[in-house]
Amino acid sequence: MFGTHNLALFVVSGLLLNIAPGVDFLYVLSRSASRGTLAGVWAALGIGLGCFVHISFAALGLSAILASSAIAFTAVKWVGAAYLIYIGISMLRRRGGLTLALSTTANAVTPADSDARIFWQGFLTNVLNPKVALFFLAFVPQFIEASSPTKVQAFLLLGTIFNTTGTAWNLFVAWAAGYLARRLQLASRVGVWLNRSLGAMFIALGVRLGLSSRA
Question: Does residue 173 fall inside a structural domain?
């Protein structure tokens, strides 16, 4: 189909890769646990849109610049690392714990502002990670026929399939985290430490990205 091969293997491999915990997983988890399932859904949709940006760039060959240019890769890498660290520090500085935003408080953010901010933060955490672009360049072409005259279409098809399964998984994480948070009703002290732990993880991921290489 459109110059692809081993499509079933691609779907299974992609799903397994999506399930592996990473930045996207942690972001959806943190937003779902702190603000409920709907916030996690917006986070997942933002990440999905960011993934489509990488897919489009890779299909058109623009992501190859990141693979060949040390300057371009380093610039995007540092911006992405700084953004992840910023999110982590914001979580560490938050006084409250992982308390669901189901009741109105003096510090509550309006739903529209909250949804928009969560969506675009998810988008940026994905777009500003050059490793995602290099992943698509390394992984997807393995399932495209070398002699296919429709390589761009094949890349877009496979990228869309990968992003669809990834978004479906993130939506499940959003539902599961929101459901568990509602059922468990995390105590304030436990919520604070969980919030701090997730913040520390984002900082660690940012540092790891900043120290990473193209290889």
Answer: yes
